[in-house]
Amino acid sequence: MAEEIKEKYWSRFSATYDENQECVVGKNFLNEVKRNINNLTDLGEVLEVGCGTGYFTESIVKNAKHVFATDLSEELLEKARERLGDNDKITFQKENGMNISFTSNKFDTVFMANVIHVIENPQRVLEESYRVLKNNGLLVITSFTNHGMKLLEIIKLGFRFIKVWGKPPRHTHFSPDSLCSLIKSIGFSIEESRVLGDKTKSVFIIGKKKIIV
To answer: What is the CATH topology of the domain spanning 2-209?
Structure first.
């Protein structure tokens, strides 16, 4: 039921999704996140959880063999298809990140951008990510955080969010340490952990699925 509410919440913004993002956090900040994604290499077969309108899909696909771009919202997926549907390296598919339909040990990389902090059960989506990854597969997460932000900037960002998105859905405020701790508890090792941004911040974390002997 909670996921149905989330689906309806995000779907109603499909026409203005990108503009809303840029209004809240700034286009320069989003471009910084994209630059860091562009630096990732040899990603192989990728599962993107929560692709939205494909805003970051067009970055991740550059260094992937193939991307399964998934989202809970069919309306957002339709916008992603309009944006990137002519790229034969991308398959769009409706999926619930807490109950992924793909078989275990299928993907080289699981990618999530600005998703995990608004998922009802972050631990569950990480468990599902671990399951569908091959041994030594990578988990790449970038997600907004208020960690390290000045109080005034947090307040201003909150006002901008409410202005374009309305009352926010339930979400989790992850610091780099708290998100890394959760990721490690699932069975991943942490390969990289950074904070991106100046006034607006994002965690950027790469985990690796440990070899199962």
So the answer is: Rossmann fold (3.40.50)
